[in-house]
Each structure stands twice: as C-alpha cells, then as structure tokens.
Amino acid sequence: MPIFINLDLLLVKRKMSLTELSERVGITMSNLSILKQGKAKAIRFSTLEAICRELECQPGDILEYKE
C-alpha cells in the first residue's frame, strides 16, 4: 500500500510512548499498534483527530503517500 504511517517518528519527536498515547486518546494499544505497523485498512476521522490533538500535528504529518 502506498500510504505510510509515520506514527513512530512523531512519538519519538514528542518523547511519548505508544502506551501514553493510547491512554490520552482512548484507543486500545492493539489498535494503535496495528495503525503504527501500517496494517490498518482504514482510520476514522475521530481517531485521526484525537491523535493529531495529542501529538500537536497535522494529518499529513502522520499519513504519507509514496509511489
């Protein structure tokens, strides 16, 4: 899939663990892990919004299209 998830990079930049993000946004660790690994087939806008709010970023910082 040509859409890549840059969640790892943002977590490192924000010095935040996946566990901490999970607690802050109310999303299970397993769902965040699936997203982080690029195995997710879809993401809800509400989930994307919550992640962006907590990481203080834009959706384009998380999602990247590569050919």
UniProtKB/TrEMBL annotation:
<dbReference type="GO" id="GO:0003677">
    <property type="term" value="F:DNA binding"/>
</dbReference>
<dbReference type="InterPro" id="IPR001387">
    <property type="entry name" value="Cro/C1-type_HTH"/>
</dbReference>
<protein>
    <submittedName>
        <fullName>Transcriptional regulator</fullName>
    </submittedName>
</protein>
<dbReference type="InterPro" id="IPR010982">
    <property type="entry name" value="Lambda_DNA-bd_dom_sf"/>
</dbReference>
<dbReference type="Pfam" id="PF13443">
    <property type="entry name" value="HTH_26"/>
</dbReference>
<feature type="domain" description="HTH cro/C1-type">
    <location>
        <begin position="7"/>
        <end position="62"/>
    </location>
</feature>
